Structures are given as structure tokens and as C-alpha cells.
Input
Amino acid sequence: MITASHNPPEYNGIKIYGPDGGQLALEASQKVSAFIDDIDDVFALNSTSKAELLAQSKIEYLDDSIINAYKSEVISLVKDIPASDLKVVFTSLHGTSVPIIPELLDALNFTQYEVVKEQAIPDGDFTSVKSANPEDHEAFDLAVNYAKASNADLLIATDPDADRMGIVAHVDGKFHYFNGNQIGALLLHYRIQSTKTIENRAAVKSIVTSDLGRKIAEANNVKMFDVLTGFKFIAEKIAQFESSLAYNYIFGYEESYGYMAGPFVRDKDAVQIVPLIIKLASELKNEQRTIVDQMNDIYSKYGHYQEKLFSHTFEGQEGKAHIEKIMHDNRAHFPSEIAGQKVIRVDDYLAQTSYADGSESKIDLPKADVLKFHFENGWIALRPSGTEPKIKLYISMITDDIASLAEEMNQAFFN
Output
């Protein structure tokens, strides 16, 4: 897939998928990287004409049967959207989810939606948005104007390659922006309620995704698995479930606004999730409730988990060395306390070891440059980016005041 995803227009790149439909797993991606690293001059590569590649059957065009098969799977997953007074504003942010999402909503007999016309045009320059990333509030600016005019209840945005999805609830004149952990918790809870007849259910989340999902799963007799960041690891887990027959997958998600309910694809997929979240909102509307009400009910029952993400950029070789030093220093000397919170466990994913009470246990995941510090009421994680000169600090705590606590924790590492 040729895509810059939700990144700025000057970015470009490709996503490479394996035969199972998931992004390449570690071993395969390392082989591809090795081939690329062996190239001295990309401009000196021999090329083959399109006609020759077609003659050699190395290019295959996908016809409508593929799209129709996919649509059938989504419709089987969602089944129906109940009639209600719910009004939705939807934007594809100049991406690929138009026309397929409107076509699916029509097929599911949901017609009370309005598409943001200015952003329904495929446009690699993203001319009508400051950000084409549904994680950013400003990505919803035009949709908010539409919702004010129509008094819509729910605003939905998909990123340009339609794998991520963000939502905003419009309740009593106020716009409530949901983060990826919250959306994931809402969808996980909904999938659990919708799959009660399935035995040995399992869900999967990334190691930097809030533990609210784990609390919801365990309270409802659903096994929750943690994997490294990247949906390819969720796809690998599904393959393991299928080969062992030990578990039936019902949902997977990451805090970075990626979700997947139906494993007929093996990557985060906003196209199947949009009708699911609309179905949930429609059912709630018929109960005179909103997604905000549902989120508050989940917090009341399972804990008021709050999240904050800090992303720090350090440019150049000096910046790279600084990021490496931050990780090295915190590995060499684990802090016993961070912002007044006592550290009770440290997970070092590079050493594949968890440390607690003077004892060690193995982390059964591939190596990754991540440090995670656990407290009685939450955790924080340090994770350098693999593609940019950035280091991220993820914070997930049970608290009513995440802002001040998160700032203290951020200052502890980046003062």
C-alpha cells in the first residue's frame, strides 16, 4: 500500500503486507530491510516495464469481487443498525474511506449521516485540514461546523488510508473528544456484550494501551493479551489463536486510534469500525443515553483511567545520542519513585525481563526498546520512535486529575 497515512503531505512511504493480510512480521520485514540496505544507488536499479510485469503475472488487478467480499464480511459483522434519531457527521479527511463507508452505511439502512463534502475529495495535499490525523482535535474543525448546523450527535473521522478512526460526541451543545484508549474501551465493552454466546473469547491490545481494557475483559471472563506496538503483532496473535484453537478473537486495539473487530482483515480497519460505533451510538440513543454516558458508566464500574502522551523531538546525531542516553540511564538505575508515585515493578522489553520485589521474570515478547514503570494505580512507559527522532512518554493512571500528575512525570524525565 502506497501511503503517508495520517502524516503531513510531504511524507510518503509504503506498507508491505504478507499473505495473511497483516503487515509483515518481524522476521519477514527484517529480510526486506536487508535487501534495501544492500542497495548502493537506488537510481541505478534495473527496472522492468509494466507490460513485462503483467506478462509475467507479477501484477494482479483486484476486481469488484474483492470489494464485494469485504463488504459482505463487514455487513455480517455489524448485522444491522437499529433505527433511531441518531445524526452523524462523517469525514474521510481527503482519504480512501469514501465511497466505501457511505456505501456500507446505506447497505445497513443507516441514512442519517452527512459527509463533509470539502473533505470527501481524495487530495494528497490535504488542503482543507491543518492535520489529517483523527488524533488531533483540529482534524474535526470542519465536521464541528457541520454538526453545529445540523445538531448532529456524533462526529466521525477516518485518517487518509482509513485504518484509524476518531470520534467526537456532541451533547447539550458541547463537543467531547475521545482518545484512542477511550474509543477502544467502548468498542471492547460493546464487543464483549455482543459475543456472549462465543466460548473462550480473547482480545488483544498493545503494551502502551491503557489497562482499562484488561479490567473490562477480565471482569467479563475474556482473556486479554498484550503485544508490542504495531498491529502486525495483533495479527500474529490471531494466527496463533487459529492454529491452536485455544481462543476465539473478538477485538484488538491500540491507543493510537487503531481497532479491529472482525479478523477477515489483519490490520487496524476504520471501515469496519465506523458502522460498529454508529450501531452502538444508535442503541444508546434509543435508551436516551449517549456515548459520553456509556464512557462514564465504564469508568464508574472499572476505574477512572486517564491517559496522557508526551512526544519529545531531538534532532540530528546529538538528539539520537540524547534519546539513547535517556533510555540507558533509566535502565542502569531504575527510579524507585516518580512524581511521588512508588515504582512497584519495571518491565524492560529490551532485556525481556520484568523486575519486582527483588525478583525477575521473563517477558514472553520480542525485544523492543521500551521501559515501563508500574505503580499501584497505573503506569508510565518510555518508548523511542523507530522512524523519527522522537521519544514518547505514555502515561496511564487511575486519577481524577491527570493533567498536573502527568506534567510532574514528564518533568521527571524531560526537565
About this structure: The longest strand covers residues 305-313. The domain at 66-303 is CATH 3.40.120.10 (Alpha-D-Glucose-1,6-Bisphosphate; Chain A, domain 3). The radius of gyration is 22 Å.
